[in-house]
Design a protein that fits this description.
Shape: globular
Oligomer: single chain
Strand content: under 5%
Radius of gyration: 19 Å
Helix content: 40-55%
Distance between the termini: 9 Å
Largest sheet: none
Number of domains: 1
Number of strands: 0
CATH class: Mainly Alpha
Length: 362
């Protein structure tokens, strides 16, 4: 295999975890001034989360399923604490608790652990996707008696999935639909699948379909599936490109909810990033804005990975999941991980081993 392609694939997957861990301390900070107060010198390396989270609404989220607490889910059995996140339920009833409380600098959040789990499952299947293997490993990851990940928070889709599983639904039918099903977090596990399959010669159309099917296990949404198609095509284009001159066009052509000309205008406009992602585009998780926000930052800062990742952090909102997806694109563009940070991840050894096996397609 061409060494350049191997380097791009490796860097993309390493950056997935870097982008996640870098943004983790200020994940879901929606007032950007709070980011500046918590980290007045900016975030230039991995940091632990502060104890106080000024925008946290974890206490309003349902512990029995997806979405927020409501009269409709009162009296239902708890998923948080009883089925998943064992030993963490007490943090969900306190105001201003950080979503990732107790995590260390360089730790990865739950969705990144899901991406690692998928990578490991694919490695056991010769680098190919194994739906049932993933579901089994995903359930084991989240329901372990001794925590298999360091996170305190589980997105709505995790809680909905395990609420349905507890009701006796088959794992491949446990996907729940809530207001935030079409979210950027659904794309975090896509890169290992797309890269692993394409390195082994699986046709792009078949890879795209596998990614759609995988996405539907947890995020059944038509528009999100269309964005997933665009993400897979973009991964493929960046991975196998012949010239760096193609990068800008590949990024600008990938948008699905913002016309290409409008995205190009935002990139060229040189407006403050917090004005673009904050006023023009929402910093929230919803894919209609989160996807073009990723493309905007990638296109604007394509020549400087750390500036791109820091810009993503500083606009706030769902910067962790945007950071994972953005990191993949930057790794594909540069062919090396960002900022020399990969070795500082707390689970670097396990992540590195999994990535090395996946990109070795012999």
């Amino acid at each position: 295999m061409d060494a350049t392609i191997t380097a791009r694939a490796t860097a993309a997957l390493q950056n997935l975890f870097i982008g996640d861990a870098l943004a983790m301390p200020v994940h879901w900070f929606y007032r950007v001034g709070d980011i500046d107060r918590a980290f007045p010198n900016g975030i230039k390396t991995f940091e632990a989360p502060p104890e106080y989270h000024p925008s946290s609404i974890m206490s309003l989220h349902s512990t029995s399923g997806g979405g927020r607490k409501s009269s409709g889910n009162q009296g239902q059995s708890d998923v948080v604490g009883d089925v998943i996140l064992k030993g963490k339920a007490q943090y969900w009833d306190q105001s201003h608790v950080h979503y990732h409380q107790g995590m260390r600098a360089g730790d990865n959040t739950l969705n990144a652990y899901c991406a690692l789990t998928l990578t490991e499952v694919m490695n056991e299947a010769g680098g190919h996707y194994d739906r049932d293997g993933f579901l089994q490993a995903y359930i084991a990851l989240l329901t372990a008696e001794q925590p298999a990940h360091p996170d305190t928070y589980a997105e709505s889709y995790h809680r909905g999935f395990f609420a349905n599983l507890a009701k006796g639904l088959p794992p491949d039918q446990c996907a729940a639909v809530t207001h935030d099903t079409p979210s950027i977090g659904g794309l975090v596990t896509i890169a290992p699948l797309a890269i692993g399959e394409r390195l082994r010669g699986t046709p792009l159309a078949d890879t795209r379909q596998l990614c759609r099917e995988h996405l539907a296990l947890t995020h059944p949404d038509t528009f999100l599936a269309e964005v997933c198609d665009a993400y897979v095509d973009l991964i493929d284009g960046l991975l196998f490109r012949d010239s760096d001159a193609a990068v800008q066009d590949l990024l600008l052509d990938a948008t699905r909810s913002l016309p290409r000309r409008d995205l190009a205008r935002l990139v060229a406009g040189n407006k403050p990033d917090r004005e673009v992602v904050g006023r023009v585009l929402s910093p929230a998780c919803y894919i209609s804005d989160a996807w073009p926000a990723v493309l905007y930052i990638a296109a604007k800062y394509q020549h400087d990975q750390m500036k791109a990742l820091q810009a993503n952090i500083e606009v706030g909102g769902d910067n962790v999941h945007r950071g994972s997806v953005l990191g993949v694109l930057l790794g594909l563009i540069h062919g090396e991980a960002a900022g020399g940070l990969f070795g500082q991840l707390t689970e670097q050894a396990a992540i590195s081993q999994a990535i090395e096996r996946l990109v070795d397609s012999r």
